[in-house]
């Protein structure tokens, strides 16, 4: 009989058990802020280039949002009542305003970094999923907006119509807290910052000398002033307004556009400087004038004007020879 050697192996198996703890969050919709804010664009500006966009800002207007640690899940998103006209580099929808050269985009984020995925939601419907930190949180929901330049030419006229944006809060499962929708942005209360025109104006204007024996009462030595031009002017405003004012030497006659002149050794007495329009009529000093032909962003020219010496009636015999000098301030105002 053959002997057989039998080796017995004992197979030991071990089971490693993992204890999994699922963290999730609930949005406390009972304490969620329900404020409706207007768009305040005063921290923003109209980008210089087509496709350019500003940063996202909420002007420190935001609603309270408390999070309760739980075994269920929650998320937030937005609904925008507006017309989509494109997307930003981040993938955010760009919505039309009532100025065809300017669009607006939205971003949603929670005040506690890392509490949501993604941290900043750009792509519509801008969904923020709460990650389940295992901790209750007291914070704020930020609905921010950015301006986008849509066209090179931005028409005249302020922005008066913007989308209405609702933030929606969703709790999944038996959370005990109902879903909630809050109209968070509606209307507009402040316009974007204005980027001023570049002003191209002469530093000085020289009038021809006038001989004493040819002096007359009224305007004389009338000289066309070099053209004043305004370049890279903004759009999205109603008008551009300009005026002329005395800088150093005061005003002799506001209504007739007559400025006083520098006095002292070497300077003429009882001779003034008059500012005239193209027809020879005095331009009212410190009186706002509306730039003709303004239609929106672009380049414009101030209407032609003239500079002249001026001598009051009945004072010709009191005039003395000398230099005549004054200073005129040119100001542009955006309305």
From TrEMBL:
Sequence ranges assigned to domain Fimbrial-type adhesion in this UniProt record: 195-334
GO biological process, one term: cell adhesion involved in single-species biofilm formation
Superkingdom of this protein's organism: Bacteria
A GO CC term attached to the entry: pilus
Signal peptide coordinates: 1-24
Places the protein is found: Fimbrium
Primary residence: other
Keywords, alphabetical: Fimbrium, Signal
Keyword S-adenosyl-L-methionine: no
PANTHER family hit by this protein: FIMBRIAL SUBUNIT ELFA, FIMBRIAL SUBUNIT ELFA-RELATED
Similarity comment text for this entry: Belongs to the fimbrial protein family.
UniProt-recorded name of the protein: Fimbrial-type adhesion domain-containing protein
Organism: [Enterobacter] lignolyticus
